[in-house]
């Protein structure tokens, strides 16, 4: 049973934007209904929906995943409680190795320059909580520590109730044994999965006029990212098929999910890592902060990110080498890839310019400009 305490209170979401749909150009995304997962026929249909989604548009919704809205609301309330702490207190939980890719704990705002011309810095704060499997020791502020059992139960539920089914569906789509991906994403193994509370503090009207986006186009480095409904419209994705940027509409009682770099490497590019960014919200939402609740799933640290050879689908379609392999470069382990990309992402004082956005992360992998 979920662990719950009454001290958090309720969480009030901000109102959704009233800007007309035709003015925002919403993405048309499919929905994975996990209530259909429990029969062979249901899994087969969902697997087709999933693979089409991650190859064509990149993002998809998931509903009926068995986690109540009350539990989700409490996590948002906990995130707000953390960010209401004074900066001095939050900063005590910043990892010592942040500039070298460490990321569990608190990442303060203002580490990157989003407008090189004026020197405007980001307003984004992050608090990452790693797996509760014995490999990671992390001290939390009392605001979080008082509810840590509830946080653990919530994170584990995301793994068993959402991620495991998605990995089974992906395996079916690639004609692999159903446990192929769940075996390399076990909760008990060491991997850099983490739950995240993320806050985009509002900018002034003058600041918003200087920038188009609060974060530039990018891909996530792991397998799947889970994003809970966020009413402040700001998330945009770039369609794989047309390269058009589209807004992602908040949908009630759903998760928004995207595929990430590790799955691209493991499938030789067949599964496409989703390009996305956080844009300046519509004018009627620019006066509020944007609080996010996310979970990042990654393969075990010791998994080498070589293209899967056992998939008949990948063999038939000719997806037999990823970019490391095709260039005769060393294929990294998930741990090597994680900290190489995190080091690039967490570089203090970096500017959102072409030189940064096209940097070489590892031999064989050069970032691209997705702005």
UniProtKB/TrEMBL annotation:
Transmembrane segments: none annotated. Coiled coil: none annotated. InterPro entries: DIOX_N, IPNS-like_FE2OG_OXY, IPNS-like_sf, Iron_ascorbate_oxido_reductase. Residues 31-129 form the Non-haem dioxygenase N-terminal domain. Residues 203-297 form the Isopenicillin N synthase-like Fe(2+) 2OG dioxygenase domain. This is Clavaminate synthase-like protein. It comes from Guyanagaster necrorhizus.
